[in-house]
Amino acid sequence: MTLLVGVVEGDPPSRDVLASRPDVRYVFIDPGSPPPAEAAAAEALLIWNVRSGYLRDHWRDFTRLRWVHAGTAGVERVLFPELATSDVVLTNSRYVFDEALAEYTIGLMLALTKDLQTTLRHQSEHRWVQRETETLSGKNVVMVGVGPIARRTAQIARALGMSVRGIGRTARRGDPDFGDIVAAGALRAAFVDADYVVMVLPSTPETAGLVDARAIAELRPTARLINVGRGSTLDQGALCAALRDGRLAGAALDVMTPEPLPADSPLWEVPNLIISPHMSGDHAGWQRDIAELFTRNLERFLQGEPLLNVVDKTLGYAPSEHV
Amino acid sequence: MTLLVGVVEGDPPSRDVLASRPDVRYVFIDPGSPPPAEAAAAEALLIWNVRSGYLRDHWRDFTRLRWVHAGTAGVERVLFPELATSDVVLTNSRYVFDEALAEYTIGLMLALTKDLQTTLRHQSEHRWVQRETETLSGKNVVMVGVGPIARRTAQIARALGMSVRGIGRTARRGDPDFGDIVAAGALRAAFVDADYVVMVLPSTPETAGLVDARAIAELRPTARLINVGRGSTLDQGALCAALRDGRLAGAALDVMTPEPLPADSPLWEVPNLIISPHMSGDHAGWQRDIAELFTRNLERFLQGEPLLNVVDKTLGYAPSEHV
């Protein structure tokens, strides 16, 4: 008995990272074309190119589908009502991006804190201008989102001598990495004395615009904000206004609205704002890491065991046991 | 009995950070002028502006001097033969800059690794160009120099999932932060499989040009080098040649030769090189931190107790108990 697995190709194509197995046959699917006839028989689907909306557009072709794996942590592009209400299990690539994303986030925090943008601009102008800068040590960071990426970031922040708080779906105390976690309703109160805010939220109806103009208004003018989760979770206009008015010291966005950011967007030129093209998780080797995770899940699927990283299709993400 | 303390002012002036004491009288000295008459009676001298060479130039004026404190970690500008062979005790500001310097160093490592220079250039050009980048996790770093700044950097590097080795004056095994420390003679061998080299050396006759063309030639083309110690310890020309030829992936220099770097130096334009104007230790509050250290030493001096951070005037730095 051979399992037929559809693979919606990404860019770059990634078929060489999937190990061939005698009990599995892969059907590779060009996201720009309708599914080949044999794809209708696929029981599992691995989606590299989550942006294509491929499954939503061709949902009725996949009549035998039982499992979909997304090659991302955030699944808002893969999830749609028909999938959500079906019996098809959705898994994501949670954990694959934690280390790279946490490093990238800490890198952005340090870049803002050490004013690296100005140093690089001075370098391009051949100017030697010494300045005093801040330290992360002794400062605090509010992690908005308490999933595994936020957790790894919190661990490194603690190693750097920062104090950490978390904002999650439900409040709890004494988490080893986040310390006290407060519920989203207490977000504005947590922002009042924040030195850094790091946003690592999935895109769900619940998180849309969670960090809004009123929350941003609570931040001190010395505070800095980093978003590496999803652009939809932040009122981007309110952030830019705060930066332009000097009500916020700095910000870095690896995610934003829209993506890719058009060349004529005013966002590129907002003062003290670093724009990074949604690349924080794209570490060299990510395709192999996802293929390895998929293969582990494939083994479980073939054995009839519970899959790893099952997305709660109502919540819109794979919940931690704690949250 | 009042102790007379000379204070060679820096830029910015820092007299307001020194607490007034009934048993101490401060005489503030403009580094551009000869010592005032009363300075001859100073038994202690606090030098903020170590670059001025003030004490060397006016050595014979300070007839009653017993103790000199340098407001820096590196003392090569303060140390000169007459001071070295005298009974005057020299102390430095070791430990004051550890945290800031370690953070800055990690920030430079992450900037190089995540290719932040290119991202910021793309931002200025309004271009959205996603790339894959490396992680620090799983990579190794060779710390050249094993003093407290290197130690703090090593601790953070370990928290980021890196493996760490050290190069010190004497070999030893099983250091909690550096792991195995090899002697400088084994430097080239240690460079062969280095992912990152971080140089945190003082400027002494022993360290001059320690990382030379032959050492740089041992590095892999994927390696990256950061110098936050002193420019004299690195063959800068060899580094630039390696970067220009693509024999090295990247480098960042916070210290170099000469400083300040003149506007017409070719160094500003070397590919994959970040030039930072010797500011890694200049955290907001450094003057207060040095004043606090000086005050603790002043207390000891008045009590006749051994001073903190005594520089070995033969070695040219304050040695750790381990090294």
How would you explain this protein's 3D organization?
The structure is a homodimer of 323-residue chains. Chain A is an alpha/beta fold and 323 residues long. The first copy, chain A, has 2 domains: 3-96 and 284-303, NAD(P)-binding Rossmann-like Domain (Rossmann fold), CATH 3.40.50; 98-275, Rossmann fold (3-Layer(aba) Sandwich). In chain A, 26% of the residues lie in helices and 18% in strands. The first copy, chain A, is built from 9 helices and 13 strands. Chain A has helices spanning 54-57, 81-85, 98-113, 116-124, 148-159, 187-191, 213-218, 236-244, 286-303; strands at 3-8, 24-29, 44-47, 67-70, 89-91, 140-144, 163-168, 172-175, 179-183, 196-199, 224-227, 250-253, 273-275. In chain A, the strands form 2 sheets. Chain A has an 8-stranded mixed sheet with strand order 8-9-7-6-10-11-12-13, sandwiched between helices. In chain A, strands 2-1-3-4-5 form a 5-stranded parallel sheet, with no helix packed on it. In chain A, strand 3, helix 1 (54-57) and strand 4 form a beta-alpha-beta unit. The longest helix of chain A has 18 residues, at 286-303. Chain A starts with a strand and ends in a 20-residue tail after the last helix. At the A-B interface, helix 3, helix 4 and helix 5 of A face helix 3, helix 4 and helix 5 of B.
Short note summarizing the structure:
Two copies of one chain form a homodimer. With 323 residues, chain A is of the alpha/beta class.
- CATH-defined topology of the largest domain in chain A: Rossmann fold
* Derived structural class of chain A: alpha/beta
Q: Count up the helices of chain A.
A: 9
Secondary-structure element sequence of chain A?
EEEHEHEHHEHEEEHEHEHEEH
Radius of gyration of chain A: 21 Å
Number of strands of chain A: 13
CATH architecture of the largest domain in chain A: 3-Layer(aba) Sandwich
Determine the fraction of residues in helical runs of chain A and give it as a percent range.
Answer: 25-40%
**Whole-Å distance between the termini of chain A?**
39 Å
Reading side by side through the largest sheet of chain A, how are the strands ordered? Answer: 8-9-7-6-10-11-12-13
Low-confidence stretches of chain A: none
**What is the multimeric organization of the chains shown?**
homodimer
- The dominant shape of chain A is elongated
Q: CATH homologous superfamily of the largest domain in chain A - what is it?
A: NAD(P)-binding Rossmann-like Domain
Assign the CATH class of the largest domain in chain A: Alpha Beta
**Largest interface: chains, residues each:** A-B, 52 and 52 residues
Q: How many structurally independent domains of chain A?
A: 2
Mind summarizing the main beta sheet of chain A?
8 strands, mixed
